[in-house]
Design goal:
globular
Length: 191
């Protein structure tokens, strides 16, 4: 866990760097709105926060800048640890118009099936929490959804670490809704 002073000092350092170096910092967000985002990320004296939650909250602030060159990523060493220790979502997904569809023929749920939730979290709630991990300019999100299609498994593992299996709620083309438990993929087996 990080102390309030550690979290807030890192946040101030990040804000200072962005304000002094980013040429388009306020292209998509006003200075006042961005300041509110930073203020909302600070924690009170005596509070602590995990490194993971700190990263997720900082990533959400950086995402508000909406610059394709400015995004949060985990350090290389943490990525190696994640790939070694994590279990990844096994179904390749394709995002179309904000919805997730299975995008492979040799997996446990038919290709083209809409994924409604994973582990009880509706995709409509899950996707916004993963968007800070993909880059894109402005407010046109089609490119970001394409990037999320490519990085969904690792983004999910960063935001919601999982061991073992995933409970997937889905809707077939017929409209029938079902549930299936699918086995996660070990990091070494991720392609």
């Amino acid at each position: 866990s990080l102390s309030a002073s550690e979290v807030n000092e890192d946040l101030e350092r990040m804000q200072g760097i962005l304000e002094s170096m980013h040429p388009g910092l306020h292209l998509y967000i006003s200075p006042e709105e961005l300041q509110r985002e930073f203020d909302g990320c600070r924690i009170g004296n005596g509070q602590t926060q995990s490194l993971r939650n700190t990263f997720l909250r900082f990533a959400a602030v950086v995402d508000k800048i909406r610059c394709g060159h400015t995004y949060a990523t985990i350090p290389h060493s943490a990525g190696e640890e994640l790939r070694r220790d994590a279990v990844f979502f096994p179904l390749p997904l394709k995002f179309l118009q904000g919805k997730a569809y299975v995008n492979h023929k040799r997996v446990e749920i038919p290709c083209g099936t809409e994924v409604l939730s994973i582990n009880g979290i509706a995709m409509s709630k899950l996707i916004p929490q993963l968007m800070p991990f993909v880059t894109g300019d402005g407010f046109v999100d089609e490119y970001r959804y394409e990037m999320l299609s490519d990085s969904f498994s690792i983004s999910l593992a960063i935001a919601f670490p999982q061991k073992g299996q995933f409970l997937v709620e889905f809707r077939k083309g017929t409209g029938e809704v079902g549930m299936k438990t699918v086995q996660g993929i070990e990091g070494g087996d991720l392609q």
